[in-house]
Amino acid sequence: MQTEKNEPQNRSKVSIKKVILWMLFFIILFLLIPFFGIPLWLSSESGKNMILSKVNKSVPGELKISDLSMSWFTGVKVSQLDFSDDSGCTKITAKEFSARPRYLELIAGRISIDAARLEEPQISMDITGDCAPEIQKEKSIKIDQPNDIEEEKQSPAALLAVSNIDLTIRNGDFKIIAPGSSNDIKTLELKSINSTLALRPLGKESSFDLSLAVASDNEVSQVNTTGAIKTSEKGWSFQDTSGQFSVKIDQLNLATLGPLFKVLDVNVSAAGTLNADLDTKITKGQFDILKGKVNATDLDVTGDILKGDHIQTAKLVSDVNLNTDKDSVNISNLKIETDGLTADVKGTIPKTMTSWQDFLKADSPDYLHAKFDCDVAKTFKQVKTIAKFKQNFDINYGRLSGDIDTQALNGKRMLTGNVKLWALEGKFPVKKIVLSKPVEVDAKIISEQDKIIVDKLALDSAFAKADFSGTTDNMNYNAKIDLAKMQSDVGQFIEFKQALFGDVNLAGKAAFTKGVFSSTGNGSVKNFNMVMPDGKQILEPTAAAKYDYTADFNTKLLTIRSADVTASPGKFTLKQSQVPLDSKSNQQTNIVGNVALDLSKTKQYLNAFTSFDPKAQLAGSAQGDITLGMKGDVVTASTKQIAIKGLSLAYPGQQTFTQEYMNIGFNGRFDTANKTSTIEQLTIDSPQIKLNGNLSNEEVGQNVKTEGNFKAAYSLAAVTSLIQPFMPEGLSATGNRNDSISFSSTYPKQQPALFKSNLNAKGTFGFDTAKYMGFDIGKTDFNLAVNKGLMTIAPFTTTINQGKLNFAADADFKSTPSMLKTPKAMKVLDNIQINKQTTDTLLRYVNPLFSNLLDVSGKLNFDCNAMSFPLEKGYQNKIYVVGALEITDLRLSNSGLFDQILKATGGGSGGLMTISRTPFIVKDGIVSYDRMDVSFGNKTITFSGQIGLDERMNMKVTLPYSFGGGKTTTLPLKGTLSKPEIDLGSLLQEQLKEQLQNQFKDQLQNIFK
User: Fold this and answer.
1) In the predicted structure, residue 39 carries a pLDDT above the cut 70
2) Is 229 within a domain?
3) Of 306, 374, 379, 677, which sits 20 to 30 A from 811 (CA to CA)?
C-alpha cells in the first residue's frame, strides 16, 4: 500500500527534472544555433551574395569577391577583391584581406580590429578625359534625384570611436593618371607599398612604418618613414604632441607629384630634386632631438599652401644635429645654405636667463660659434605671406649679417658678437623706405672666475645709441633716442599716427645675478612734442622718470619697487607693484599707484585724447591712490579716494562750476572671459553733490543683464553748470534734490541697442525752478517708472510763466525712434505769459506774425487732444500734435508782417489783439490749420494754410478790406518763415479787378438811366 502511494510522487519529481533539463537544452541549443550558424551562413555563397548586394546598393560601383569566410575566433577573410566605380575611372583590387575584429568592442560602440592584413592592393585612378572631376560632377547632377528628401544620416563609422586598429599592407600599388600643366598626360605610380599601422585612441601612443617607391617618367625614388606619436586625450594639437619619427627620401623629383596634387585637389606646383634623411624626437610640441640632412636642387614651390608665396632656390643644403632641454639648445652642427642665406652654428644657445648666466661663467664648458649672412630681399619675398607681412609691404634690397664667438684663454672666457643690418630699401605700404644709416649691434663680454665683465655692448643707428659697460653685478648703461629720426626710420615699417619730436635720455645701473635682473635709473625727455592727426598737440619742455625694479626669472616675477614719472600736469608714482613674467602664471598682477595733478595743466592732454572743450577753463588739484589687480581674465580696479581741491570748471558763456572739495571713490571687478563687470561702489562727495551707487553687467546665456542702483543728494544749480555742454541750450534748473534711481535690463548681447527696449526702472526727479525756451517753471516733483521698455511719467501740475502746466506722458522705448506720448486729452498750458523767447522758439511756427519781433506779450492757452514727439535727434518729422490754442491780451512790437498788412489796407495801429481758439495739427513736419482769426479793435484778419518746421510756408491771409465795398480780400503770403511777405502783386491784381468791375457797373447804370 505504501509503495503504491509513493509512486505518483516519484513520477512527479522525475517529470519536473526532465522539464528543467529539456528547457536548459533548448536554451543552449537556441544560443548555439546562431553562434555557429551565423559564421557558417556568412561564409556560404548565399551569405556572400547578400553582403555584396548590400554593399553594391550603397556605393557607386560594383564590388566582387571570390571567397568570404568568417569565424568568431579567427576573424574575417576575403579573397580576390575587385571593385570598379560606375564610370570605370577608379579600380581597386586586392589578393586578400583579413582581419580579426573584437566583436564585444564593436557592440560597445568602439572600433577595435586586430591583425588586419591587406595583400597586394592595387589602386588605379584616372582623372583625364571623361574621368575629369568636372565632367563627372556634371554627370552626377543630371541623375534624377528622388522626390522624397531623406533625413541626413551619419555613417556608422562616424558614430564609433577608434579603440584599436592594427593594419598591415603588403606589396601595394597606387597609380594615378592626371593631366599635366601643359595638358599632357602624366602618370604617377607609388609602388611596393609596405606599411604597418597601429592606431590607438587619443592619449595613447600610435605607431606607423611605411616604405614605398615613387615612379614616374622612368624615374624612381624611395621614401621610408617610421615613428610613434602620442597626442593629448582632449584632441589633436601640436603643442600637446610627443613622439619620434624618421623619414628618408632618396632622389625625389617633386615635379612627378603633380598627379597626386591633382587627385587631392591641392593647388600646388612643385619642381626640383629632394633628398632628406631626418630623425626627430618631440616632447609636448618641443624638438628634443633633430638630426639629419636635407639637400635640394632647383627648388621651385608655389600654390595655395604657401598663400601666394614662391619658394625658389637653386640649392638648399641643410645639415643639422641638435638637442634641447629645459635650459638650452645644444647644437652639434647646424648648417644652412640657400641662394639668399648662409648660416653655420655650433654650440649652446641658452633658453632662460639663468642658463645665460651659467653660459657666461669663466668655467662654463659651453661654447657658441655662429656666423650668418642673409639677403633680406630674396629671403623675404619667399616667406612674405607665411610670415604674415602685409601684401603692400615689400623689401627690394637689404643685408643682415653677423657673427658670434666664444673663446677661452688664461682662465678667462670671452663672448664677442656683431650684428649688422644695412642697405635696407623697400616700400611700406606704397611709399619708399630707406634706412638712413645701418643698424649695428656690437658686443664683447669677458668672464673671469669671480665676475663677468661687459667690455662692450653697444647699439648704433641713426635714431638710437646705447652702451652697456661694467660687470654683470654692477653694470652702467645709457641710451639716447631721437624721436624724430626714429619716426623717420622705424616709422617706415611701423605706422605712427602721431608725429613725434624730442630727445630721450636714459641712464642707470643694472645687475644680473642668479637669474635675477635688477635696475635703478632715471630718464628724461626734452622738447617733447606730439602732434595728433587732427592737429592737436602735447608739448612737454621737460619730463623725467625714476625707477627701481627687479625681474626674477626664477620665479618669473617683475617687482617694481618704485617708479616716479614727473611732467607738467604733476606726478605719477608706482610702489611695490608686481607683474608676472609668464602669461600662464597663476600669480596676480598688483599695481599700486598714486597720482598728484595740477588740473589746469591737464588741459592739453584732455584736448588731445577727449572731446573736452578747448575753450573751457579748468583749475584745481587732484591727489589719490589707484590700485589695479589682474589674475587670468579678471581685472580689479579701485581707489579709496581721489581728493580734488579748489575745483573750478567754466565753459564759455556759462556759469562757473566750483567746489571747495570733491572726493571720488571707486571699486570695480571686470571678468573679460565671462564678460561680466561689477562696479561695487561709486561714491562722489562734495559740498553740493553726493552720489552713492553700484552697477553690474554680466552675460547670461545669449543675453546681457545690466543692473544699477544710485542715490544722489545734489544742488541742481551746481550740477547743471557742470554738465551744461551736454544739456539742451538754454536749460537751467535750481533746487536741492535727494533722488534715487534703480534700473535693470536683460537684452541680446548681439543687439545692445535693445537695452532701452527691455529696461525696468524706478526713480524720482524734480526742481525748485527751471528755465527753458522762455518758460519759467515753478517747483516740480514727479515720479518715473519704466516697465519692460514702457516709461510712465505720473501726472503733475506746476506753475509756469504765471500760469499752470499740467502734464503726464508715456514713452515706448521699443519703438524706433522712442516716442513720448500724452496718455489722454488735457489742458497742458493754462493762461501762461508768453515772451519773445517762447515766441522765437515755438509760436513763430504757428503764425508768421510772430517772426522777427522786438517784443511780445500775452496769455496762452493750449488744449492737447494728442501729442507725441521723438526722444532722439533727427526725427522732427515724427512730431505729432492735435490740439487747439488761444492767445489773449496779445501785444506785438514791430511785427514786420503785421505792419505790411496795416500799410496795405490803410489801417491804423493794431493795439491789443486776440487769437481765437484755433484747432491745429502738427504732422510730417508741417503745422496746419484751416482758420486762425486774429482780432484787433473791431477788425479781424484770418490766416490759413501750412508752415513747415523747415520754415517753408503755404499760407493765405484774408483781410477785412475790399476795394469795392462789402467783401474781404484773400491774399497769399510769400517768402519764408524768417522773412514773410504779402504777395503785393496779387494785391494790385485784386485792386485792378475791383476798379474795372466798378467802372463797368457805372457805365451800365448810365446806359439804362
Assistant:
1) no
2) no
3) 677
Instruction: Tell me which residue of 989, 972, 730 sits closest to 835, measured CA to CA.
Output: 730
Query: What is d(CA 432, CA 424) in angstroms, rounded to the nearest whole number?
Result: 11
Query: Can you read off the three cell numbers belonging to residue 694?
Result: 553700484
pLDDT digits 0-9 by tens, 488-546 = 777 666 667 788 899 999 999 998 888 888 999 999 999 999 998 888 889 999 999 99
* Residue spans of alpha helices (H) in 687-786: 716-722
Element (H, E) at 773: none
**250 located within any domain:** no
Q: What integer pLDDT is reported at residue 150 of this predicted model? A: 42
Q: Are 617 and 648 in contact (CB under 8 A)?
A: yes
Residue 746: how many CB atoms within 10 A of its CB?
A: 16
Identify the domain boundary among 653, 684, 715: 684
Q: How far apart are CA 242 and CA 236, in angstroms?
A: 11
Whole-angstrom Cα Rg for the chain: 46
State which H helix or E strand residue 459 sits in.
Answer: strand 452-460
- Counted domains in the chain: 2
Q: Is residue 896 part of a domain?
A: yes
- Burial (0-12, 13-18, 19+ Cβ within 10 Å), 849: buried
Q: Which domain holds residue 847?
A: 834-1009
Q: What is the pLDDT of residues 306-316, one digit of tens each?
A: 666 677 888 88
Of 660, 684, 708, the residue that ends a domain is: 684
CB 360, CB 452: distance < 8 Å: yes
In the beta sheet, which residues pair with residue 413? Answer: 408, 447
Sign of CA dihedral 619, 624, 630, 634: negative
Quote the pLDDT of residue 387.
56
The helix-helix angle for 45-58 and 2-42 (nearest 10°) equals 50
Q: Are 192 and 169 in contact, with CB atoms under 8 Å apart?
A: no
Whole-Å CA distances, 526 to 267, 537, 561, 567: 57, 15, 26, 11
Tell me how many helices (H) and strands (E) the chain has.
Answer: 14, 54
pLDDT, tens digit, 9 for 90 and up, residues 108-162: 556 677 788 889 999 888 888 777 776 666 665 555 444 444 444 444 444 345 5
What is the distance between the alpha carbons of residues 91 and 63, in angstroms, rounded to a whole number? 10
Task: Give a yes or no: residue 1003 inside a domain.
Answer: yes
Residue 72's alpha-carbon distances to 17, 55, 101, 116, 920, in angstroms, are 34, 22, 9, 15, 97
**Alpha carbons 842 and 862: distance in angstroms, whole number:** 12
Confidence of residue 773 (pLDDT cuts 50, 70, 90): confident
Report how far residue 270's alpha carbon sits from residue 256's, in angstroms, rounded to the nearest whole number: 9
Pairing of strands 570-580, 557-567: antiparallel
- Give CA–CA dist 906/961, Å, rounded: 9
Reduce the DSSP state of residue 575 to 3 states and report it.
strand
Q: Does 390 have pLDDT greater than 70?
A: no
Question: Quick one: DSSP state of residue 725?
Answer: G
Helix (H, G, I), strand (E, B) or coil at 304: helix
User: pLDDT band at residue 725, thresholds of 50, 70 and 90?
Assistant: low
Amino acid identity, residue 955?
M
Cα distances from 966 to residues 933, 962, 994, 995, in angstroms, run 19, 7, 12, 14
Nearest residue to 278 via CA among 324, 311, 241, 318: 318
Half-sphere exposure of 16 (CA within 13 A, CB side): 5
Say if residues 453 and 445 touch (Cβ distance below 8 Å). Answer: yes
**What does the block give as the cell for 367?**
661654447
pLDDT at residue 22, as a whole number: 54
Distance CA 519, CA 512 (A): 9
Cell output for 938:
473791431
Quick one: cell of 802? 504765471
Distance CA 504, CA 519 (A): 18
Tell the residue number behind the cell numbers 556605393, with chain if given: 59
